[in-house]
Amino acid sequence: MEPYTDIDRTLTPQHRQLKEAVHAFSRDVLRPAAARLDRLADPAEVIAPESELWSTLRAAYAGGFHTALIPAECGGMGLDGLGLHIALEELGWGSADFAAALCVAGFPFASVAGTGDAGLIDEIVRPFVANRDASTVGCWALTEPGHGSDHFMAGTPQFRDPAITGDLVAREDGDGYVLNGRKSAWISNGTIATHAIVYLGVEPRRGFAGGGVAYVPLDLPGVTREPPLDKLGQRALNQGGFAFAGVRIPRRYLIVGPDAYEGVLRQTLSLTNAAMGAIFTGVARAALEEALAWTQTRVQGGVPICRHQLVQKHLFDLFTKVQNCRHLSRAAFVLNAGAADPALEYSVAAKVYCTQAAYEVADTALQLFGGRGLSKGWLVEKLFRDARASLIEDGCNDVLTLVGAHELLRNAAAPAPAEAIRIHAAPQAEAELQPA
After folding, report:
1. What are the structural domains of the chain?
2. Segment 368-404, tens digit of pLDDT
3. How deeply is 384 buried, as exposed, middle or buried, from its count of CB atoms within 10 A (0-12, 13-18, 19+)?
């Protein structure tokens, strides 16, 4: 499966079986489909009814991959933290765009499952789990025309600033809520989704802290969509926005209110950032494998270029980055899986480090390919574009770094008094330090 041994030899037979099954599906189905969809000039072709996108999604649903985030008691795959990391790394190895699409497709239903509401689970989650024809597709509606990564800054002063509010607001009305506002063009699966989990304002006077989470069927009156974006990379992951004008939902579909919103947002960010770390560990690994294969066959100076010491150094640097990605992102998943109060800084670190490393690995791999790396039709060129997009999606890395720093300081122990942490010098030196 890999040109080197998985450093984690503690995988159970079940985890190894999972890894092999997801890898085979990614190799045989996702990667070739993503490559063909990547070559379509018009993003509208990617989502057209006759597009290969749909047959690929149907194959993924038939294998149950759309339920990866859903617990076993609701009929989903019920993966533990390690199992989810393994699955997402292998999906990312095959196609970052399809990996993200499948995660997002199930996210609204996993969110409802997380409420523990038996009625909502029977109404919403179980039919989705049973779906095998990709006729039900979810999306996660967070980004807005006026707000992006700042949505994630829970716990910071600006998060509670009443002057900073979201574009989409839910107004209580009788036995339900009425939604008005927009979500921006960066909503993954936004152009094909049938249902959304929507992060919105409920009590705008509290700023972002007055937010909530609603489950919204997208066939309701008042929902309009934008066309798909024409993107640099991850073209099989369609993205587009929509607007809500007087969209009415029943009260029970507001599954999180303002009092619980900040905690739920932290859990969401912990999961999604860890997932990005795992997916782009797979992308980095794919780029390394391409570089290893190419440098052993490409001859320059009378020998395969892998015989040149500079190339060998590059290859080992890439290998090291991939292993660092795997360990950090896997640790974040295992640590935070199911945690009510996750150690968010670890998930943020996994997203920021692994996406940056994936971009660097893909960039160096492309360099080793020379001119061919710049040419369409070579996997390494697609990996480079896909990795570049990851530095912005799911929270841009610059802002997420600030979120991670805030969490790190929030969780740090109170500092000792200055005199207690001063370096203890020898008595004579201590005397010399005293003021005259």
Report:
1. 13-137 (1.10.540.10), 139-260 (2.40.110.10), 262-411 (1.20.140.10)
2. 999 999 999 999 999 999 999 999 999 999 999 999 9
3. buried
